[in-house]
């Protein structure tokens, strides 16, 4: 590969400013660099681990196609979705053909747009550390790098199971719809591979009544459980049945996504009436909002009883760009954070279940302004509540610093849930953990140098932030 060599990032990336801080940060980072990776929440596909000879396909399929971080940046600079291989929808279905080499070329020509972003850091890390690419990715080097990665992906050491072990992953959790058959998880469990890939129960499509095709999702839930869902009571029985099924295949957590943190308990009669209206496609104003708020409380009740850790991701207005949604469908990089309120909205749930240590509720927000004002004080009081790591738009080095500065002084480190990589592209996982570990080491170095933490305390905190908190929180 004869192209312009790129400068290798130094061993002290993310450390500093100043030699003393970099020196302490480096020592803290080195104390955890060999620890395995705990991945309690990802969006990678379990299918890739269900067989021993799975192939990622092409470099475009690996790095670009599944990653909405890539879509949104390129689209914002005028790159048409079609040039990224995103097919247009035709009468409710997707159609189209991909030219992956051309997609990669388009991406490489625009790779400079990711300078200074975590996406650029993660992709650069994966190219360099996973695939041994020594050249800068740009329009001139694009096809040589494409061929280099394509050749690597043909070798056994670049199959997902081999990379799982190379990345030193201890456990990886996927995110799966309540109606998922979990056939790939079953295949993994039945294999002699011996590594931990666990499902996560995500019931959004059957509890959020405004989900497109909600009645079809409910029909699939009914078929999966053998329970005829005719109203609220039968819906609850079916959800409890599926939670048991997920636990049998290793699940330790649930995941819930809502626009707001609103919770409020309905009477049994009201809940029954809302579900029956939904089944007849006769929802009334606020039915969906009221039911979602009620179901969050119900899900907390179930988690108290069966031990599944409850994750709540709040604050995205999904598919903001109607033109993109209409032409290309959901999840194409047009989700935008909205302001949130938690103190009043979560009070019904927390007053009912938040004092019970059998419940673990891990809360993620896209409204950074609430970290110090609401979330850290709440987590610093309720035994059930833990704060999730900076998420989505805020998983950059700067976002991590802001999070730690806001949260730890109020809630304490041990009311946080550690790191959660939220990866969609498998090869970004080690890069994301590397960034988290380096940035938290640098943050802790500041505490050491200002006599806010002794060295032995910082070493323990470093291990917990890199490994122990996530493992304990998610019961992995």
Question: Can you give a write-up of this model?
Answer:
The structure is a single chain. This protein is about 45% helix and about 10% strand. Mean pLDDT is about 95; it is low at about 1-5 and about 90-95. It is α/β, with parallel strands linked by helices and about 475 residues long. The radius of gyration is 23 Å and the shape is globular. It has 20 helices and 13 strands. The strands form five sheets. Strands 8-9-12-13 form a four-stranded parallel β-sheet, with helices on one face. β2 and β3 (about 95) form a beta hairpin. The protein folds into two domains: about 20-55 and about 160-475, Metal-dependent hydrolases (TIM Barrel), CATH 3.20.20.140; about 55-160, Orthogonal Bundle (uronate isomerase, domain 2, chain A).
Short description:
The protein is α/β, with parallel strands linked by helices and 476 residues long. The chain has 2 domains: 19-55 and 159-473, Metal-dependent hydrolases (TIM Barrel, Alpha-Beta Barrel); 56-158, uronate isomerase, domain 2, chain A.
Please give a handful of descriptors for the protein shown.
476 residues, alpha/beta, TIM Barrel, uronate isomerase, domain 2, chain A, four-stranded parallel beta sheet, 20 helices, 13 strands, globular, disordered N terminus
CATH superfamily of the largest domain: Metal-dependent hydrolases
What's the story with the biggest beta sheet?
A: 4 strands, parallel
Mean of residue pLDDT? 94
- Indicate the CATH class of the largest domain: Alpha Beta
**Count of distinct structural domains:** 2
Number of strands: 13
Structural class by secondary-structure content: alpha/beta
* Shape estimate: globular
Number of helices: 20
User: Helical amount among residues, as a percent range?
Assistant: 40-55%
Strand arrangement within the widest β-sheet reads 8-9-12-13
Task: List segments where confidence is low: pLDDT < 50 over at least 5 consecutive residues.
Answer: 1-7, 91-95
CATH-level-2 architecture of the largest domain:
Alpha-Beta Barrel
Question: Roughly how many Å apart are the termini?
Answer: 43 Å
Strand percentage lies at 5-15%
């Amino acid at each position: 590969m004869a192209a312009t060599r790129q400068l290798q990032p130094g061993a002290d990336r993310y450390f500093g400013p100043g030699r003393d801080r970099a020196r302490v940060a480096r020592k803290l980072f080195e104390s955890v660099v060999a620890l395995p990776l705990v991945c309690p929440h990802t969006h990678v596909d379990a299918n890739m681990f269900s067989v021993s000879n799975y192939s990622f396909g092409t470099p475009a399929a690996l790095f670009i196609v599944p990653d909405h971080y890539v879509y949104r940046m390129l689209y914002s600079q005028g790159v048409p979705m079609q040039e990224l291989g995103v097919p247009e929808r035709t009468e409710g279905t997707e159609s189209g053909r991909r030219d992956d080499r051309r997609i990669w070329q388009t991406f490489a020509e625009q790779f400079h747009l990711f300078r200074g972003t975590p996406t650029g850091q993660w992709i650069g890390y994966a190219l360099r550390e996973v695939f041994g690419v020594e050249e800068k990715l740009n329009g001139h080097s694009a096809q040589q790098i494409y061929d280099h990665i394509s050749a690597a992906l043909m070798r056994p050491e670049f199959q997902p199971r081999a990379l799982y072990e190379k990345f030193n992953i201890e456990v990886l959790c996927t995110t799966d719809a309540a109606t998922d058959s979990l056939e790939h998880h079953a295949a993994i469990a039945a294999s002699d591979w011996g590594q931990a890939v666990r499902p996560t129960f995500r019931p959004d499509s059957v509890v959020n009544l405004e989900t497109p095709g909600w009645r079809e999702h409910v029909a699939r839930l009914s078929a999966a459980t053998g329970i005829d869902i005719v109203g609220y009571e039968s819906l609850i029985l079916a959800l409890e049945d599926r939670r048991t099924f997920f636990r049998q295949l290793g699940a330790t957590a649930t995941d819930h996504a809502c626009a707001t943190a609103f919770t409020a308990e309905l009477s049994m009669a009201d809940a029954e009436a809302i579900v029956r209206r939904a089944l007849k496609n006769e929802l009334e104003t606020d039915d969906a909002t009221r039911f979602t708020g009620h179901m969050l409380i119900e899900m907390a009740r179930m988690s108290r009883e069966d031990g599944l850790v409850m994750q709540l991701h709040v604050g995205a207005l999904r598919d903001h760009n109607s033109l993109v949604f209409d032409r290309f469908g959901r999840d194409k990089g047009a989700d935008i954070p909205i302001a949130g309120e938690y103190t009043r909205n979560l009070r019904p749930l927390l007053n009912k279940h938040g004092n019970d240590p059998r419940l673990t509720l891990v809360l993620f927000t896209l409204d950074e302004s609430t970290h110090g004002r609401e979330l850290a004080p709440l987590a610093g009081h309720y035994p059930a509540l833990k704060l999730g790591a900076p998420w989505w738009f805020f998983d950059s080095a700067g976002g991590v610093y802001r999070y730690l500065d806001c949260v730890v002084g109020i809630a304490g480190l041990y009311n946080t849930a550690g790191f959660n990589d939220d990866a969609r592209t498998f090869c970004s996982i080690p890069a994301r953990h590397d960034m988290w570990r380096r940035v938290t080491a640098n943050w802790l170095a500041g505490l050491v140098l200002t006599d806010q933490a002794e060295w032995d305390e910082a070493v323990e905190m470093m291990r917990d932030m890199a490994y122990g908190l996530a493992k304990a929180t998610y019961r992995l």
